[in-house]
Design brief:
elongated, binds magnesium ion, binds adenosine-5'-triphosphate, alpha/beta
């Protein structure tokens, strides 16, 4: 559904060149929700703009719904819904309803269908009661919901959502996530740019991590988690162990200590070695007070990859 081949975008500004997207390639199959994560300035929005034909690539190409973003831009635009969080593309003095009506009419949706469509989208997003409010008086969350509603007017097969829940209240964010989940269930193909790793874990089948224009890592969340140590074991002891013992622990992975709390923390390189690790503590005649194991969050894993450890 989305096929990206060595896509590259260089912005030229006076004497400076910015390589915003650097030879990015990946595919998103039909019905897949693909999460794009990465630090500010990594190139995520530029990639979305390239895919939505708003800007032209410096080199490389991409296909959406089988159409080439360079030579078949109108077919591409008909295949996608873009929610880019750009408020400026709405008419400030028109209400939410009037804005959606205008954009729907532009897409030649007949008025009866359009009325029903707008009504059901606004109700689903829980902003029907605000439909007559002028856009400029809407809250950020309401604006974001109108943006999402607009991209769903024609019910396109591919959705490009650039940070649909950033800086809005948790309830509105939850509504938007629910709607994205429903779109996924309906088989829509979704590229979801997000800084919210909880959101990525909840919604995405695959994620790609961008850093400085490059796609530095890609895969299902479980495969990303398999490639880096993701189990953190915290052991509290009756007495803090001697240095030789801590040395022995290092074969299991990175070791951090908090002597004042008599705690040793091991980032297990191989999650299957937990019992072996505990065995080592026992053989060292150390008295364990507690053991806690926890999976690293996607956020912690993400930091590992963008620090170049991936
Ligand atoms: N029109 C432009 N002209 C020049 N440079 C640009 C332009 N648009 C983006 N850039 C630069 O390209 C790089 C990537 O920007 P982009 O907006 O794609 O990042 P992002 O991953 O979406 O970041 P964020 O998480 O902050 O939204 C940045 O260095 C940015 O300054
Ligand atoms: Mg961005």
């Amino acid at each position: 559904m989305i096929e990206i081949q060595s896509l590259k975008k260089v912005f030229r500004q006076k004497r400076k060149e910015v390589l915003a997207v650097d030879e990015v390639s990946f595919e998103v199959g039909k019905g897949v929700v693909y999460g794009l994560i990465g630090a500010n300035g990594a190139g995520k929005t530029t990639l979305v703009k390239l895919l939505s034909t708003l800007i032209i690539p410096s080199s490389g190409t991409a296909f959406i719904n089988g159409y080439n973003i360079a030579s078949q831009d109108s077919e591409v635009r008909e295949s996608i819904g873009l929610a880019a969080g750009t408020e400026r593309s709405f008419y400030y003095r028109l209400s939410g309803w009037q804005n959606l009506w205008f954009f729907g009419a532009l897409q030649k949706i007949n008025s009866n269908d359009l009325k029903n469509r707008i009504e059901s989208l606004l109700k689903r997003l829980d902003i029907f009661s605000e439909k007559d409010k002028e856009f400029m008086k809407c809250s950020t969350g309401e604006k974001r919901k109108l943006d999402l509603a607009r991209c769903l007017l024609t019910d396109p097969p591919v959705l490009l959502l650039d940070e649909p829940t950033t800086s809005i209240d948790p309830y509105s964010a939850m509504k938007i996530r629910e709607v994205i989940g429903e779109l996924k269930d309906k088989g829509r193909t979704i590229l979801l740019v997000t800084h919210n790793l909880y959101e990525a874990e909840r919604l995405c089948d695959r994620v790609g991590i961008m850093s400085e224009g490059k796609l530095v890592k890609e895969g299902s969340l479980s495969s990303l988690k398999n490639e880096v140590p993701t189990k953190k074991v915290t052991v509290r002891l009756k007495n803090f162990p001697p240095e030789e013992f801590l040395e022995k622990l290092k074969v299991f992975g990175q070791v951090n200590t908090r002597a004042e709390r008599r705690e040793v923390e091991i980032l297990l390189q191989d999650a299957k070695k937990l019992s072996e690790l505990i065995g080592l503590f026992n053989s060292g005649n150390l008295i364990l007070e507690s053991i806690q194991t926890r999976e690293l969050s996607l956020e912690e894993i993400f930091i590992k990859y963008t620090q170049g450890q991936g």
